[in-house]
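Tutorial handout. Part one gives the primary structure; part two gives the three-dimensional structure as C-alpha cells.
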Amino acid sequence: MIAQILLQTSAGGGGQMWGNIILFGGIIVIFYLFMIRPQQKKQKDQKKFIEAIKKGDKVVTVGGIHGKITAIEDDTVILEMERGTKMKIEKSSVSLEASKKQSEKK
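Part two.
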C-alpha cells in the first residue's frame, strides 16, 4: 500500500514542477507590469522634464519650495522666491512645474 502511494506521488511530480514554474513566471510578469515598468516610465518623464526646464518657468522643488527660474547653469538652477530671495539648487531637485500643479487643482 505504501509502495503504491510513493509511486503515485513520484509519477505526478513532473507536472507539478511545470505548474510551479508557470506560477512563478506569472508572478514575475505581474510584478514587472505593476511595479517596475511604471517606475521606469516615471523616471523617464522626470528626466525629460528636467532637461526641458527653461528660464522663467515657475517650479516646485522636492522640498516644497516654490519659485521662478532666473538662470540655468550646467547642473544647477538659480531659483527666485518671494521678495527677491535667490537660491542655487541642483536641477535634479526640481520636482514639477508650479503652473501645471495649479491648473490640476481647478
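Part three, for discussion. The chain is about 55% helix and 25% strand. The longest helix spans residues 13-52.
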